[in-house]
Specification:
Elements lengths: L4 E7 L7 H12 L1 H19 L5 E2 H7 L4 H13 L3 E8 L4 E8 L5 H6 L1 H11 L1 H12 L14 H4 L13 H11 L4 E2 L2 H14 L3 H9 L2 E3 L5 E3 L1 H13 L25 H13 L2 H9 L5 H12 L5 H14 L6 H13 L5 H13 L16 H6 L4
Parallel strand pairs: 1-4, 5-7
Antiparallel strand pairs: 1-2, 3-4, 6-7
Length: about 400
């Protein structure tokens, strides 16, 4: 046991313990013993509130929950790993006293939990795909009548400040502050690099530490003798990072920035850039599943593989073709039509997202299926594929 050791257990204001989330989502991954420790720590916070914050004795706590130090350490680590618990320690040399402070976090709801691809992977591994899909149905069952029309307003319609489009959902100030702690060299992160980072953070729920690690591995010295984040290297590094966790597939309730008006109207640059970032960040299977919200059929998978292998198209080009052909086919992925479009794209030597998008936009506007383009440009880098929007 631990000699002369006390502890505080605290939780945030308005803490809500949802036992359904705890047992459905967390218990299969970390086990009942860790869940039991979590519940006892939550109860301990209430006791310490009633006793005006008097610290508890850690050894007495072990006896109350019938746990050894080794068991406590193991289960505590599981809770910390899955972000239900944070542990802080203070040591007072004058009286040889050690104080632990345990900060209790609320369990995530189903949507937030499975939006973390690593948590979702562990859950499926623990309970199996069939039971996971059953949970999806329970938590995400849509009881809105299929014939009903969604007339809800949007954030932009209510909060229509012209400057709101410039506000990023990613706290880049915090990223810059962390980088500054580790290097005295100023590092430039372009707007294009920020857009790539924002897309990956949203889609894959990466941590800021993982983003910082990616940034450190993508710093280059440019012609002006300044250090900046190379967008090509960043794209490749983040893609490798998210694929490093085996058997993780994009869940079907991820939202992508689609806007079918892009083929018939001139959208704002910010809207186009968001859509193109999704094209670049997601492979074709992920993008299509994020659209249709259901597992892909064997024909869907065969169609995508044909576009890759026979027509030699990259995934981000395939994603653009998926959007365009579903727009032209009333929401259906028509295999014959998308292969015909792929054949025409190759026949006209259209290589880049810009060339193909401009071609589709013109074809839709002119009420034509295709219009040849002359002087097609050579293949561009991924960074140039998105950067064109700003020029």
């Amino acid at each position: 046991m631990l000699r002369n050791t006390r502890f505080f257990a605290i939780k945030k204001y308005a803490f809500n313990l949802n036992h359904n989330f705890l047992y459905d989502l967390y218990a299969p991954i970390i086990g009942p013993a860790a869940i039991n420790l979590f519940i006892n720590l939550v109860q301990e916070t209430d006791k310490q509130i009633q006793t005006m914050g008097i610290a508890g004795d850690i050894n007495n706590f072990f006896k109350q929950i019938d746990s050894s130090l080794a068991e406590f350490t193991t289960n505590r680590s599981k809770l910390e790993a899955i972000n239900l618990l944070k542990t802080y320690i203070q040591v007072n040399p004058s009286n040889d006293q050690t104080t632990y402070t345990f900060l209790i976090n609320e369990p995530l709801n189903f949507t937030d939990f499975v939006s973390n691809q690593k948590f979702r992977h562990l859950l499926i591994k623990s309970i199996g795909q069939i039971n996971y899909e059953r949970l999806e149905f329970v938590y995400n069952a849509n009881r809105v009548p299929s014939e009903a029309t969604n007339v809800s307003t949007t954030f932009e319609n209510v909060f229509n400040d012209a400057d709101i489009v410039k506000v990023s959902e990613v706290n880049f100030q915090e990223i810059y502050a962390q980088i500054a702690k580790n290097t005295s060299i100023p590092i430039m992160i372009s707007d294009n690099a920020k857009s790539i980072i924002a897309s990956y953070l949203k889609t894959y729920d990466l941590s800021l530490k993982e983003i910082q690690h990616a940034i450190y591995n993508c710093i280059v010295l440019n012609d002006d003798n300044q250090y900046h984040v190379d967008t090509d290297l960043l794209q490749l590094f983040l893609d490798k990072l998210v694929k490093s966790v085996n058997n993780i597939n994009l869940l079907k309730n991820v939202q992508v920035n689609r806007n079918n008006k892009m083929f018939i109207e001139h959208l704002q640059l910010e809207e186009l850039q968001q859509t193109f970032n999704d094209y670049v960040c997601l492979n074709a299977e992920q993008y299509l599943r994020a659209i249709i919200k259901t597992p892909l059929s064997s024909e869907d998978i065969e169609t995508i593989n044909t576009l890759r292998e026979k027509y030699q198209l990259t995934d981000y080009i395939i994603n653009l073709l998926i959007d365009y052909t579903m727009f032209k086919s009333n929401g259906n992925l028509n295999r014959k039509y998308i292969l015909k479009v792929a054949h025409t794209v190759n026949a006209l030597n259209l290589k880049t997202l810009k060339q193909i998008y401009d071609h589709f936009h013109f074809a839709s506007h002119a009420n034509m299926t295709f219009q040849p383009q002359d002087n097609a440009k050579p293949q561009q880098s991924l960074a140039e594929e998105v950067e064109w929007i700003k020029t």
